[in-house]
Amino acid sequence: MIFLRLFIEFLKAGLFAVGGGLATLPFLYDIMHETGWFTMQDLTNLIAVSECTPGPLGVNMATYVGNLTAGPIGGITATIGLVTPSIIIIIIVANFLQRFKDAKLVQNIFYGLRPASTALIACALCLVAKTAFLQLNVFEKTGHYLDLLNWKHLLLGIILYIALVKFKKHPVIYIAIGAVCGIIFQL
Questions:
Q1: What span, in angstroms and rounded, lies between the C-alpha atoms of 90 and 109?
Q2: CB atoms within 10 A of CB 98
């Protein structure tokens, strides 16, 4: 049954995606390959929509995939699957930390979790960059190294990054600019 599978897949993602919403991307990549529920293009759109909408990124992505796969009930099912481990773990950890927050073991555990969450987020960055900036299908056809990069996407990404660093406006502004450029130039 699709709803049980949605729940279990997102339960696994919620249980092991340490580090926030972007850390769920490697799990979504696996779900995409294992189930065929969505394509890489859908995953790219999912990231863009999830970044633009209010709320936790992981929850937005789970809701999007669930809705895409099995309608509104699928969205609710995937979201519940994703947040269930967090709710249980937060309750346990809150009780545990109150008693042992100054213990060396607890401090060491959190020290070790930082690199794990950094690695998951770095993996997500690589997956998104690969999708946004590389044209592997074009390169495979032509064999020309200049066809490997999507130069328009890369140039727009660099320009938006520089603008973000220089002007320090809200990220939604740069997302909107990217969307408008995509419409105008059909990137």
A1: 15
A2: 8
